[in-house]
Structure formats: C-alpha cells, structure tokens
C-alpha cells in the first residue's frame, strides 16, 4: 500500500493562467484553503472534501451540473511514478495519448505524485432548497437542468418527498425575495431514548446531552437503529426537517457545494439518460 498523506503541499500557483501544481496527497479542503488567498478555487466539487486530490482525480469523481465536466477534466499535466519508466511527466500538449490514458487511470499506470489543475476564479453561489415530489420532478426535469448551474435531488425513501437543491452564481447582490433560510432545528429524541434504542446495535452510543447538541441532523440520524418501521418514521421526520429548511443561502462555492452525507449510507448507482431518467422503475424493499 502506498500512502501519500504527507505529500500534501501546494507547490506552485499561476494566477494569470489560473493553474495550481500540487502534491496528490493533499486533501480537497486543504487545497481550496491554500489557494483562496490567490482568488482561485476548483471548477467543481464532489460532496466530500476530505478526499485526497490524487484519488478524486484518478477515479473521475464528479460534482453536479449538466454542463460541468467530471473533476479529472481539470487536470492539465501530471507527474507519474511508474514501475518500468521511473518518474515521467505527461501533459495534454506533449503526450496526449498517454495523458488521456492516465487522466482517469485508477492508478493502473503508476502512482500520480503531482498534478497541475486548471482552476477558476473564486465565486459565490446562491443556493435554493425546495421540496418537490417524483411527479413534479418528471415534469420539470429539462427545465431544472437547463436553467441551473448546479442541481441535485435528494429522494427520501418511504415517502414521496424529493429535496431539490439548485445553485447559481450570486450576481449583483441579488437574492430572490423569499430569501430567509429557515434551517430547522431538531431534537427528536432525548439522550436516554437514543441510548436505549441504540444500545443493542451500536458500539458508539450517545452518552450525554452535550454530545446530542453537537450532532447535526444527519449525524443524529446515524445514531438510531435500523429497524424498518423505525426507519420509515425517521425518514418522515427527515422529510419534515427539509420542509422547514426551504429557502436560500449565499456562500463561496467550496462551502455551498459540499454535502453532509450523514455517516454510514447504503448507495445504489444507476446509469440513465439525463433527459429521460424515469424509464427505469426502481423498486425498494
């Protein structure tokens, strides 16, 4: 196993070309923090910012936005440590064929030690969170994709609730009039209730009220057990949480585009046409 965690430096910043050269062990958040003083940021972000740059680029991780490419498309050049040819430097201009093989190479051609990334000017976004349902999403899919720079749907199982989150450039200080974000506060269970419900299923119970008050909604959800009937109730509570959280907020793109996934999750991935995604019927247990 190769651990690049200590290779975490920003090596060079070219403000004119908006490019940065970094070691690939640097984490996304560390990179963003390191270049914001130069007025730069990444073009797009995946949800989780604790990932190392080498990993997020080599697997072709993506953010949101129908017109924005996956993150590996931001790579201009790279330094590759190979078993046969030693350390080589490749770029779009000098070695296009090898570069495109290695650009999203999953580490199969060698260890990517350094990358030069095309950045963009740091930008503020206005985020809009709203509640919809599957039928409305089907009707408005094309419009949502064409009118928003970023967009995502959060479907809550055992409900007909779909959380719609769109983000666009914050221009001229203008935010729609219903701009007050109503971020719901929630404390659905006491410490003793969570500890009792969770005692037989978790090695990490919540111990006191201080712990509970420091948990986000999704972290609190992760402390609860996984009995199906209880999950249905939790999901109904989550749907209500999001209804109370409808509104707008403004922030830097690296702050807005991240997402609190909430600890342990089970993910299902489906590939479909972005213009007609509802041909596939998804069955849930």
UniProtKB/TrEMBL annotation:
<feature type="region of interest" description="Disordered">
    <location>
        <begin position="176"/>
        <end position="207"/>
    </location>
</feature>
<feature type="domain" description="FAD-binding PCMH-type">
    <location>
        <begin position="1"/>
        <end position="122"/>
    </location>
</feature>
<dbReference type="InterPro" id="IPR010031">
    <property type="entry name" value="FAD_lactone_oxidase-like"/>
</dbReference>
<dbReference type="GO" id="GO:0016899">
    <property type="term" value="F:oxidoreductase activity, acting on the CH-OH group of donors, oxygen as acceptor"/>
</dbReference>
<dbReference type="InterPro" id="IPR016166">
    <property type="entry name" value="FAD-bd_PCMH"/>
</dbReference>
<dbReference type="InterPro" id="IPR016169">
    <property type="entry name" value="FAD-bd_PCMH_sub2"/>
</dbReference>
<feature type="compositionally biased region" description="Polar residues">
    <location>
        <begin position="176"/>
        <end position="203"/>
    </location>
</feature>
<dbReference type="InterPro" id="IPR036318">
    <property type="entry name" value="FAD-bd_PCMH-like_sf"/>
</dbReference>
<protein>
    <recommendedName>
        <fullName>FAD-binding PCMH-type domain-containing protein</fullName>
    </recommendedName>
</protein>
<dbReference type="InterPro" id="IPR006094">
    <property type="entry name" value="Oxid_FAD_bind_N"/>
</dbReference>
<dbReference type="GO" id="GO:0071949">
    <property type="term" value="F:FAD binding"/>
</dbReference>
<dbReference type="Pfam" id="PF01565">
    <property type="entry name" value="FAD_binding_4"/>
</dbReference>
